[in-house]
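Worked example 2:
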Amino acid sequence: MKTKQLATTEDFRSTIERGVSLIDFNAPWCGPCRAQEPIIQQLLDVFSGRATIAEMNVDENQETAAKLGIQSIPTLAVFKDGIEIKRFIGLQTAQTLSQAIEEHLQPS
């Protein structure tokens, strides 16, 4: 399975509006972003059908990145029903990200 690419602000909004989502904000030239890719791929398999895992190229979506205050990449943000609930900056482990997603999948 391939990670969903968010090409526009509208894609971003519709992706995060319902349920739990992990969005990976990155750029093709970013070394740590490339190192994060296999971890994101692993999460995609683990959370298939339970959470949305997607990525957004900040070079191609500077407006969205600026609105969210993203200044360093990779930045990974967990959203629940359209609201950002957790943010990680820099390379993250699968365990850290899994835990963040899992804790928000629980009914509140």
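The beta strands are 4-5, 20-26, 52-57, 75-80, 83-89. Residues 31-46 form the longest helix (16 residues).
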